TrEMBL record, chain A:
The keyword Transmembrane helix applies. GO terms for cellular component: plasma membrane. The keyword Membrane applies. Belongs to the CPA3 antiporters (TC 2.A.63) subunit C family. Keywords: Cell membrane, Membrane, Transmembrane, Transmembrane helix. The chain crosses the membrane at residues 6-21, 69-92. This is Na(+)/H(+) antiporter subunit C. Gene3D superfamilies: 1.10.287.3510. It is a multi-pass membrane protein. It is found in: Cell membrane.
UniProtKB/TrEMBL annotation, chain B:
This is Na+/H+ antiporter subunit A. Its main location: membrane. Residues 129-424 form the NADH:quinone oxidoreductase/Mrp antiporter transmembrane domain. It comes from the Bacteria. Residues 639-703 form the MrpA C-terminal/MbhD domain. GO terms for biological process: proton transmembrane transport; sodium ion transport. It is found in: Cell membrane; Membrane.
Length: 112, 958
């Protein structure tokens, strides 16, 4: 399972990076969500998969899965929601003001 | 902490309090509010003179960074006190003078005085610190405050140019000095200057000693405007005249001289030191005096004169260091007379140059020009200013009975004495020094006379002036009159100074010259017979008068010698070249293209991580212990991969967004499979809310065009993307393959219930073990939501929607702001569903400590309910029912979380310590109450606030 998950993570990163490198703002934003998914699964896979019950002590199981990556990912999900929303607004505001969403045309001017 | 420490800090305090006081007393000139500081400090420094005399230097220690050897240790010996008195004494007079010079209604006075007080504090710290690093800090602070003061009239281009120039040159020197101090530290292991002096004899043979000396001298020469670094001083004259009088003639430019005097016990006895200090000094002396003679601007004349006089004092300290070669003999005292002359002239220069600058300021202020070609005949209308100018200029020219005459004579004595030193090739070249000194004195005489008689003498010709000239007000005259009187008093009774100031200062410069307990006996006389020095002075006056009379008629004497070649040009073009060079280097990689920056980052990731993986041998495929995979899991993986890969090929916005959403839901399923119920819940709600968000933004987003790019572009992107993907796969494999260290997770599993009273370990980690992270996280979220609000709602001035492109597609937009939805089924179901969802949200929130749920999940669930309400009944309906300002809700949430954390202090526990206990409550039963729940409530409120702010702000943007 870990092997296939690793492959899936690789694919998520590949797609994410490819999208982020493209010119259109929308693709770049979508790319960041793929990177986020990749990171989440990477964190989860790192601590080994399916090693026990969910980290709820009420389950009274012999073994639990690692709770630490889960706490990290929970934080990350919510943060990335905030960041993605911010990106979206930034993107469409830039588009409204400047009339383009092509990153190559959005280079700063020389006299900055 | 000593009173001496406080004395250094006092000006800084005034700089801080002054502007506040000014607000309370808006009608008072800021100068009056600041004046007590220098006056008090002057009196305090005076009171230290007898203390120093009887009990030795006042010392104070203040530990700062002992591990680095940097401590704020102060001591007031003769040299430090001498400078402190000049700083505070001239400082008092300059502040008084500036009150009349700067118009309260026209100038930004608080700025001016804040800078001035900063400078005063920094300068005092510089001359009273024992620690070289602290000295360096104050040194740079004087450069910065000087920069600010020169650029005080920052709307003038010349002011900014002059300020930048002085800053570049003095800070360059300061850095060199810093390096020199570091070298001395490596040699001795201490930053204390007194310890350096104590260890000086053993240091001399160290290889780093000479480089250290050169670097320290570079600092001193740039600061004290020695040739060829003098070019910043004439341009610094753009500063208001009180500043020129204070910083650029009396105090800051003498910091370099102070450094030479202070470090003299360390370096004296080195031939290089003697030659460099006196050589640069003499060169500056003659160059400055020659250039001063050719100036037409009063302040420029005084600037070059200052350069020249600084050279004179510098050379005297160099000549005085010859005494170190003869320690223990009578000859040592013979050569130390140069030091005596240096100290004496230092005081005299501060006095007469201060008076002259103030006079120049008065002339400028009352006539509107400083050009001596336009001035003349002011004697009749400005008699007091004329008298001051005569006294100051005659003193500068070295005419009896003023103080400058005495130190000029002593200077001649010193240059004549040095010929007898039988060392260092002085025998051959030493004879040149008196000749140069004499010629420079002739020039000095000439420009002093020019200053007085071109301005005040000659015919009245006021038609060229902008204002009708008249005498300055009393307050403006008082400071220069005080200084001029001192010039006479010290000329007639020089021994007033010798006992109190000169002898202690000499003791500080020559600590090893005398046996312990003895003191220098300085006795200066106005008349000392028909000596060589007197004949030299007579010659200076005779030739000077001739040159002065010829001055106007002989072009050699007033026209610039070289028009084209000048050090200023070297500076200007050098600076331009540097600017262009660094600009072109930066442009090589800072192209403004975000794609390129990202490529740097990704290539670095591939290289660094890849190299580490290979070099550590981390890439091993060890599948033992890997979990098995079921058919359903294989399906999810394939679905995830396919939906991800399809996104770059999607041609429409909607398709791309939906495919991204599919991947998100697949990830949610993985969270379910991998026993992460909290994550699964969170991700599911976030995906749902995100879809709503996408649709809201849809209204505004541009259409997804097929990217017309070169194949090369795409291949590069693909290459980098695959590279990153491969590296991350390898990282995932090597991380899950084998653990090289013990995981810390056991701790959380074991202690979650016992320490934090929660059974849901993930939630306990979030609110308790790692509560601080979570608190900052909700702050970040809050910032993001406010950022969105600001982007959309805050309209700045001149922010007109020009060239905005309308690509709105109303059919696709989520109709949440307009009239309510027409869908009857949706509205009927929603009424019930909203209640259920809100209840569920509260349940999730409350049960979060033991079961899946918690603040984040509960809040997202509640937001989902509100969103549903908005969709079915319109946003206005939401506003009617839920009368919150969601932005305030965010702030309240963060506040609740913080206050919970701060509450720990009441129980003497560290920030964010939690407590919990179980209570029995009728009807409900056993109940746990934990402060962690309160913290989670903060999270809950913040997340609702953030989510709703984001959605509503975007939804209402039209």
């Amino acid at each position: 399972m870990e092997l296939y998950m690793s492959l899936a993570i690789g694919v998520l990163f590949t797609v994410g990076v490819y999208l982020v490198l493209s010119k259109s703002l929308l693709r770049i934003i979508l790319g960041t969500s793929f990177l986020t998914h990749g990171v989440h699964l990477l964190l989860l896979t790192m601590s080994r998969l399916k090693t026990g019950a969910a980290p709820l002590l009420g389950e009274k199981a012999d073994a639990y899965v690692d709770p630490l990556p889960q706490a990290l990912i929970l934080t990350s999900i919510v943060i990335s929601f905030g960041v993605t929303s911010f990106f979206f607004v930034l993107a469409y505001k830039a588009y409204q003001k400047l009339g383009t969403d092509d990153m190559e045309q959005l280079r700063g001017s020389d006299d900055e | 902490m000593l009173l001496l420490h406080f004395a250094i800090i006092l000006p800084f305090l005034f700089a801080f309090i002054g502007p506040l006081l000014q607000k309370a007393l808006p009608r008072v000139h800021t100068g009056w509010l600041m004046l007590p500081a220098p006056v008090f400090l002057f009196i305090y420094m005076m009171s230290l003179i007898p203390v120093n005399r009887e009990r030795g230097p006042l010392q104070g220690k203040l530990s700062w960074m002992p591990s680095l050897g940097v401590d704020f240790d102060v001591y007031a010996d003769g040299l430090g006190l001498l400078f402190a008195l000049i700083i505070t004494g001239i400082g008092s007079l300059v502040v008084l003078y500036s009150i009349y010079y700067l118009d309260k209604n026209k100038e930004k006075l608080t700025h001016f005085y804040v800078y001035l007080m900063l400078f005063m504090g920094a300068m005092l710290g510089l001359v009273l610190s024992d620690n070289a690093m602290v000295l360096y800090g104050f040194w740079e602070l004087t450069s910065i405050s000087s920069f600010l003061l020169i650029a005080f009239w920052h709307k003038r281009e010349r002011s900014r140019y002059g300020a930048l120039k002085s800053m570049v040159i003095t800070v360059f020197g300061g850095l060199a000095m810093f390096a020199g101090f570091l070298l001395l530290y490596t040699v001795t292991g201490t930053f204390s200057i007194r310890e350096w002096i104590a260890e000086a004899p053993s240091m001399a043979n160290d290889a780093l000693f000479l480089p250290a000396m050169l670097l320290v001298l570079l600092g001193a020469f740039t600061k004290s405007a020695q040739f060829p670094f003098h070019i910043w001083l004439p341009d610094a004259m753009e500063a208001p005249t009180p500043v020129s009088a204070y910083l650029h003639s009396a105090t800051m430019v003498k910091a370099g001289i102070y450094l030479v005097a202070r470090m003299s016990p360390v370096f004296a006895g080195q031939q290089a030191w003697l030659w460099l200090v006196s050589g640069f000094g003499v060169a500056t002396l003659i160059y400055g005096s020659y250039r001063a003679m050719k100036q037409t601007d009063l302040k420029a004349l005084l600037a070059f004169s200052t350069i020249s006089q600084l050279g004179l004092v510098m050379s005297l300290f160099g000549l005085g260091s010859a005494a170190a070669f003869y320690t223990g003999t009578e000859q040592a005292l013979f050569y130390s007379k140069a030091t005596m002359a240096a100290v004496f002239h230092l005081i005299n220069h501060a006095i007469f140059k201060g008076a002259l600058f103030m006079t120049a300021g008065i002339v400028d202020h009352e006539t509107g020009t400083r050009d001596i070609r336009r001035l003349g005949g002011l004697m009749a209308v400005m008699p007091i200013s004329f008298t001051i100018a005569v006294i100051g200029a005659f003193s500068m020219a070295g005419i009896p009975p003023f103080n400058g005459f005495l130190s000029k004579e002593m200077f001649f004595t010193s240059v004549l004495n040095i010929r007898e030193a039988e060392l260092l090739g002085l025998h051959a070249w030493g004879a040149l020094i008196p000749v140069i000194a004499w010629v420079a004195s002739v020039f000095t005489f000439v420009y002093s006379m020019l200053f007085v008689f071109r301005t005040f003498g000659g015919k009245k010709s006021f038609e060229k002036l902008e204002k009708k000239p008249h005498e300055a007000p009393l307050g403006m005259l008082l400071p220069p009159v005080t200084l001029a009187s001192l010039a006479i008093v010290f000329g007639l009774f020089p021994n007033l100074l010798s006992y109190s100031l000169i002898e202690p200062a000499m003791a500080a410069v020559h600590p090893n010259l005398l046996e312990p307990g003895k003191q220098f006996m300085v006795s200066i006389h106005l008349w000392h017979g028909f000596t060589a020095e007197l004949y030299m002075t007579a010659g200076v006056v005779a030739l000077g008068i001739v040159l002065f009379l010829l001055h106007r008629r002989t072009a050699v004497l007033h026209a610039p010698l070289f028009e084209r070649v000048s050090l200023n040009r070297v500076y200007d073009s050098g600076l331009k070249l540097l600017d262009r060079f660094s600009g072109s280097v930066t442009k090589l990689y800072m192209t403004g293209s975000i794609r390129q920056y990202l490529i740097y980052i990704f290539v670095f990731i591939i290289a660094a991580l890849g190299a580490t993986l290979v070099s550590e041998g981390a890439v091993q495929l060890d599948t033992s212990g890997f979990a098995d995979m079921s058919f359903y899991e294989a399906v999810i993986i394939i679905a995830l991969i396919l939906s991800a890969i399809a996104v770059p090929f999607a041609n429409s916005r909607l398709m791309a967004i939906i495919l991204t959403g599919v991947s998100g839901y697949m990830v949610t399923l993985f969270f379910v499979i991998f026993r992460a119920p909290d994550l699964a819940l969170t991700q599911m709600i976030v995906e749902t809310v995100s879809v709503a968000l996408f649709l809201l933004c849809f209204y505004h987003l541009p259409k997804l065009k097929k990217e017309v790019v070169k194949l090369r572009f795409k291949l590069w992107n693909l290459l980098i993307a695959v590279g990153v993907g491969t590296v991350m796969t390898l990282v995932a494999l090597s991380a899950s393959g084998g653990s090289s260290f013990e995981s810390i997770s056991h701790y959380f599993l074991e202690n979650s219930y016992t320490l934090a009273g929660g059974k849901n370990v993930v939630n306990v980690i979030l609110v308790d073990f790692r509560g601080f992270d979570t608190m900052l996280e909700i702050v970040v979220l809050g910032i993001a939501s406010y950022g969105i609000y600001a982007l959309i709602r805050v309209k700045l001035k001149g922010d007109q929607e020009e060239g905005a492109i309308e690509t709105r597609d109303p059919k696709l937009s989520l109709n949440v702001y307009g009239p309510r939805s027409n869908d009857v089924i949706l509205r009927t179901v929603a009424k019930l569903a909203i209640v259920i969802i809100v209840c569920f949200s509260l349940y999730l929130f409350y049960m979060g400590h033991h079961h899946p749920g918690g603040g984040f999940i509960g809040a997202l669930m509640a937001s989902a309910a509100l969103l549903l309400m908005a969709m079915s009944f319109g946003m206005d309906a939401v506003n009617r029912i839920v009368k919150f300002n969601f932005r305030k809700l965010t702030a309240v949430g963060i506040l609740v979380a913080m206050l919970t954390g701060i509450g720990s202090f009441a129980f003497d526990a560290p920030f964010l310590s939690h407590a919990f206990d179980y209570f029995h409550i009728p009807l409900i039963g056993e109940l746990e109450l934990a402060t962690a729940t309160l913290f989670d409530l903060g999270v809950y409120l913040t997340v609702i606030g953030v989510t709703m702010t984001i959605l509503f702000t975007i939804g209402r943007d039209q």
